[in-house]
What does this fold into?
Amino acid sequence: MINLIYLTVLLPLIGFLINGLFGRKIKNEKIIGTIGAASVGISFLIVLGAFIQTVALPVDQRSNTVELFTWLSVGGLNVKFAYLVDQLSLTMALIVTGVGFLIHVYSIGYMHGDKGFWRFFAYLNLFIFAMMNLILGDNFVVLFLGWEGVGLCSYLLIGFWYDRNFEKGTTSQAAKKAFVVNRIGDFGFLLGMFLIYMTFDSLNFKEVLSKATTFPVTEATFGLIAIFLFIGATGKSAQIPLFVWLPDAMAGPTPVSALIHAATMVTAGVYMVSRTSIIFASAPAVMMVVAVVGLLTAIMAASIGLVQNDIKKVLAYSTVSQLGYMFLAAGMGAFSASIFHVMTHAFFKALLFLGAGSVIHGMHDEQNIQKYGGLKKYMPKTYITFFVATLAIAGVPGLSGFFSKDEILWSAYANGGFIFWLVGMITAMMTAFYMFRLLSLTFYGNERFDHHHVHPHESPALMTIPLMILAFLSIVGGYIGLPKVFVGEHGNLFESWLEPIYEPAMHKLAHFGSHSHFEEIMLMAVSIALALSAIYFAIHVYNKKPQIAENVSAKFKGFYNLLLNKYFIDEAYEAVVVQPIQKGSDKLLWKYADVKIIDGAVNGLANLIEKLSGVIRKIQTGATHSYAVIMMVGIAAALFWLILSL
Amino acid sequence: MSTVPMEYYLVLSAFMFCVGVAGVLIRRNAIVVFMSIELMLNSANLTLVTFSSYLGNPIGQVFVFFVMTVAAAEAAVGLAIIIAIFRNKLTVNIDDINIFKW
It folds into this structure.
């Protein structure tokens, strides 16, 4: 199965080609949906097979390369199109194909009747193709191929309903914003790649990572590479300062938000940091930057999420916030904790988005949670699964989110210090609060929608069954990564599984474990208590005494508006970056440089030639005799010259 | 046969050529111009034959056959063109045929 890993990339590509080229002709939604979902489903089975096979291998043989062909061979640069099958890529591949398959199935129900049904599945398959390249690539170039590919698919899918309006603009504007902001990050990533090639003379992961431990490279070089790579990660994974595109990405269909903008693509940055952990570990200053950026993103996005009224906006800011958590973990050197959170987050955030999609579906495209209420009895299956996911993200003990979040908070405390833990804890409280606010406003309380026009109904089984599977995973997903304090040094299956990947980095960091078990259990208890109190508070306010919320928002009106308007970051970027570029392009580059200089040069040359030829064309008299005379004189002269030169 | 010196032939040939050139340059009637061109070709043929005969090398004569063949083809095409022009413009005066002028 390991040797067949290329099929997991090929099958979605074939699905994309079939649906993309012939989908318009096929028309039948069942066939299109089956092709789309099956290609990902079979990929999942192959990845699962490869996973089982890898688990059976001894630890030191678990990293395998599947070479397909030589892609580029220019001078010293030799790039192979090869896939790296190891613990990290298998974990990510399982998440992407597994969650991806469920979302494909869900989409068959959700997109039913849409005129772009075939286009949607073609794009989704293309996305899986690109994402698998990103994850499985055995060098930076293949990773970059996937990296750009997922960016493209994200653009295509955000602007999927290109004829619809979104907030103040159109979905195409949101799509363009995502693409442009991502390109800024990609530029950083490219610079990082160039620098890696300059330093290590290779772009292959294994070679670079082994050279990184042995080569005499200065910390400044490592720092520069790491900061460039991290800029790339901030773009793709929506961190400060490039997070602004993700909330707007909600313009796309809800399954897209679930798959691309919550569960998989946005974790690409975390994966990349994790893959190059040794480079980051060699640059402690950048590790600190990663941790601080992650922490600030987490708390900022969570605070915005407190007051948003669009169900998808709340979840979008929640995603940004959780991604911040992952970077906090990575910055603290707890790479496996960050990947663990990627996994659990993929389960419960995909579930939340799909649940939100189910609600939106049942409420006829209404997304304002102030216009929901009391939906519990109309959509029991959606409610229960949504409730499970909310518990998981809020960090209620026993569910997956608790274990991963707790591990991150513990590493923040152990490696960063009390402040990191405190800010992380406040973020966790906010998360619990806004998620239960969302839950209360949507499913409990008075029915605030218009009964004449809106008739809430449960979604079809095609949509609810993926919800149930994800709910199951959100509950049990955490038990493969139980805290060491309970299960001993090797009891954390997830961490021991990924350990070989991070071994060189851990060797360099080596600052774990000077804290007592008592501290860890104490912190855990505190975080449970705070999360539960936040949950209680949210339910109390939004269920029983809504006036409290109004009083608070009236009392702190300035702050409330600041949060509601997302700290005016979009407006600030507009004023500081977008407007100057637009004005500069308009006034300087277009009306001066283009019109005056470039057009002027071209037109001037044309005018000059026209004037010259006006003089020269007089030679053409049209009288045959003059041509004959000139010819004669010419031949005579040539002959004379020939004879004289003899 | 060898009593006639080579120069005679060459001078005759040069004279014929000059007549041809003068005809091309001076006359206005397209058919006369055309005939003058034929004269130039024939003067060249004469030169070739002369040299061939005096130098005892048959290549010159072979060459003449080619020239004559091409000249025949050229005459046919040229006359056809002149007839076509005449049908369109009702004149063969080359001063009136200047439609390619700027």
